[in-house]
Design a protein that fits this description.
zinc ion binding; 32% helix; QC/QCL; 279 residues; single chain; six-stranded mixed β-sheet; globular; transferase; alpha/beta
């Protein structure tokens, strides 16, 4: 659905919003250790937009990251190596999902943790798989073709890898933990499928994570990044987030320093656990 356009975001605003949110959390706590790695031409702890865009391009060189295909496996191993070089702890959540057609998909969520010992935590997430078919394309001839996934898939991952660079260079204070979750199998099923139906083939990794949370883990809040790479990017208030976590939405936009117009368009991610979440 085409939405009315509010004023476009400035370049790198998405990554800057993430780090502004982190800095707002850090403002209550002084200190923090210095770390190495993740420079890329900017100061420690800054989001490097150019480097993040390189992460998007690297994903695209694998081809469509469709579960069950070699490109999906290769991209997953590459992402895992990037995260292990930056995060304090990386947990691989392996998922075997039987689709409605009887195929068994072998999926992986990647859960990268900074300051894993901290009790107070925030969660940022994105999906890394791509759709098998472009079933919403206005071009009928393309609807059986795979989605390349530059915007829908690679862009959210690129932002979070850029955040991982910044957190590696300048970790959060000792009392605050940050988690980056890369979910798999988000977009495998039909675009119109009910994500809550038994055996649904969409939101697979998100639903698995919500059903297998670490002991004592609800984060303070979660922010989902999806389809944030459009060249004419406009970001709106998201209606589900407004309904379930209005205080998180307000905090994100206050940090960003902008007020988007309201939109009735909603993403299909839903709050599956008792965590205030926004997208």
């Amino acid at each position: 659905m085409k939405c009315p356009s509010p004023p476009p975001l400035p370049p790198r605003a998405v990554g800057a919003a993430v780090l502004a949110l982190l800095l707002a959390c850090q403002a209550k706590v002084s200190g923090g250790r210095s770390g190495g790695g993740g420079g890329g031409g900017t100061g420690a702890g800054e989001f490097d937009g150019q480097r993040a865009f390189g992460y998007l391009e690297r994903q695209m060189r694998f081809g469509p990251r469709i579960p069950g295909m070699p490109a999906h496996d290769s991209a997953g191993y590459w992402m895992l190596a990037q995260l292990r070089a930056r995060a304090d702890t990386v947990i691989v959540q392996e998922i075997a999902h039987k689709t409605k057609s009887g195929q068994v998909l072998h999926l992986r969520n990647f859960f990268a943790r900074f300051r894993p010992q901290a009790a107070e935590r925030v969660l940022f997430l994105a999906h890394w798989d791509t759709r098998p078919h472009a079933d919403q394309s206005p071009n009928l001839g393309q609807r059986r073709l795979p989605v390349p996934g530059a915007n829908d898939g690679a862009s959210g991952v690129a932002v979070l890898l850029g955040v991982a660079d910044a957190l590696n260079a300048k970790p959060p204070p000792p009392t605050l933990g940050v988690d980056l979750l890369f979910v798999d199998g988000e977009d495998y099923g039909d675009s119109w499928a009910d994500p809550y139906a038994e055996g649904s083939d969409v939101l697979i990794g998100s639903r698995w994570f919500a059903a297998h949370l670490p002991v004592g883990y609800p984060p303070l809040y979660a922010v989902l990044f999806d389809m944030v790479g459009d060249k004419d990017l406009n970001i709106y208030y998201e209606s589900n987030s407004q309904a379930f976590a209005p205080e998180v939405v307000d905090r994100v936009w206050r940090c960003k320093g902008s007020s988007p117009t309201s939109s009735t368009t909603t993403w299909r991610y839903r709050k599956a656990a008792s965590t205030p979440s926004t997208s």
